[in-house]
Amino acid sequence: MMRKSELSEVIAYQREQLILQKSYPRKMLSDIKMLPDFALVISGIRRSGKSTLLTQLIERKANNEFLFLNFDTPQLFNFEFDDFALLDELISERPEVKTLYFDEIQVVKGWEVYVRGILDRGFQVVVTGSNASLLSRELGTKLTGRHISKELFPFSFAEFCNFLNKEKNVSSLKEYLQQGGFPQYIQLGEDEILNTLLNDLLYRDIVVRYGIRDERALKRLLLFLVANIGNLVSANKLKQSIELKSTATVLEYLSHLEQAYIVHLLPKFSYSYKNQLVNPRKIYFIDNGLQRIITPSFTQDLGRKLENAVFWELRRAYKELYYYNENNKECDFIVCKNHEPLKVIQVCWQLNSENIRREQDGLLDAMNYFKLNQGYIITLDQSDKIRVDGKTIEVLPFWEVFGYGGN
């Protein structure tokens, strides 16, 4: 429980800090529309820039008709649902306030009930959170049809280059593959920032939130996943590798890691959802810079770092992504919309005489399977075109394909 005076002081202090904050504008900013009667919900991993994006939304409105409150601060650790009544009193004392911005609001149990109530009172509401599961579950029960959801990720390659005023070329791409895209780390370059972030992700977002008792097993799982980026994994295989007795526990830990945006489990394409569930999934990790902190030896595995970067560039633009594996042929990414395949993409650090047949055959098999006449191989820095049986394969450099736009 809190006192009204304490809450008022926090609001005043956070508003002052908001005014002082200057930041790089995210591309997502231009895509966001705030609609009456709808809550805008922005989710994403910690330190990806959600608070900064809120600041930019406030600046875009260019008026004082708002109230901002970041719940993820020690001063509000004792904030409970009943304290929303105090917040209501403070809002009523500010009749000019029309829009409410709530950062990391999911730390308050029952927050969605309050948000629904203030929407009904005519306020515009923007909320952020760092856990996809909590947000989706609570929004689904209390705010069905009353919210618009957006996801924010660390800097894309284009944003990385724009932020550092770098040319979009192979040299800047190699830097991006090592440093990753967390804004604060890119700005200051201190590895301790990533170490602190990793601890927060594991302990605050998973261990504490879900009451995990076997922290060491969770760490072993994370280390295994980071060392196997782009590889297929299953719960049974993971159970053996990290020495856990229960497959259910492995699945639980995987779910927590995925919902905190730390990893993504890419399913195999199948027109049967049941088949998607029973087949192994490919692992991708949120950020190459954070990978380097966890397993420095991974630094030299440039092919997988490139594949990981391609996945997250695609994930920013598409929700429906799969891998292909049929006829003993593999293709890295199948991009779909409404479950209809749009693009088939292979990733290769450098095409050469030893690997071109394998990469080409996997891509062509996927193209034939989906009846597509064009496919893509994304490389570090190669450009080419291949024609086979009336089908076209475009070989394109990563920095050229993803050097536009941003998050």
From TrEMBL:
InterPro entries: AAA_14, DUF4143, P-loop_NTPase. Keywords: ATP-binding, Nucleotide-binding. It comes from the Bacteria. Signal peptide: none annotated. Residues 204-349 form the DUF4143 domain. GO terms for molecular function: ATP binding. Residues 39-161 form the AAA domain. This is ATP-binding protein. The lineage of its organism: Bacteria, Pseudomonadati, Pseudomonadota, Betaproteobacteria, Burkholderiales.
